[in-house]
Amino acid sequence: MNVMERMQTEIDRHPVVLFMKGTPQFPMCGFSSRTVQALKAAGAKELHTVNVLEDPEVRANLPRLSNWPTFPQLFINGELIGGCDITMELLESGELARIFSETQGP
Q1: What's the gap between Cα 77 and its chain centre?
Q2: Residue 13, annotated as binding a ligand
Q3: Is residue 45 part of a domain?
Q4: Which of 6, 26, 42, 62 is 20 to 30 Å apart from 54, CA to CA?
């Protein structure tokens, strides 16, 4: 399986996927850290993360797959939501919590 197929499989297999620098426990950049905190605050129950620092192929090719140049990248139900700024805006508007309540149930 090539790297593009591997990334698409991750996106298809998990309802919430965050491609980030580091891990939720040990984020390696401020944007990744803020995004994880926003997801937790919005009630994300099942958060699957991919550490792009551990896989240079993913780090190099995900921007081609998603047409999004920076990390982190959040996907919900197979759709690119965006990066840190968009995630924070969705959290502040209440939209992120609504998305999780609809996709994950109570």
Answers
A1: 11
A2: no
A3: yes
A4: 42
Identify the band that residue 90 occupies on the pLDDT scale cut at 50, 70 and 90. very high
Is residue 12 part of an annotated ligand binding site? no
**Is residue 23 included in any domain, yes or no?**
no
CATH of the domain at 93: 3.40.30.10
45 is in an annotated binding site: no
pTM: 0.94
55 is in an annotated binding site: no
Q: How many domains does the chain have?
A: 1
Query: Is residue 75 situated within a structural domain?
Result: yes
Determine the structural domain holding residue 54 and report its residue range.
3-14+32-104
Q: What is the pLDDT of residues 8-46, one digit of tens each?
A: 999 999 999 999 999 999 999 999 999 999 999 999 988
The residue type of 41 is A
The answer to whether the CB of 54 falls within 8 A of the CB of 42 is: no
64 is in an annotated binding site: no
Strand order in the sheet with 16-20: 48-51, 16-20, 73-76, 79-82
Grouping H, G, I as helix, E, B as strand and the rest as coil, residue 8 is: helix
The average confidence (pLDDT) of the chain is: 94
In a domain, 40, yes or no: yes
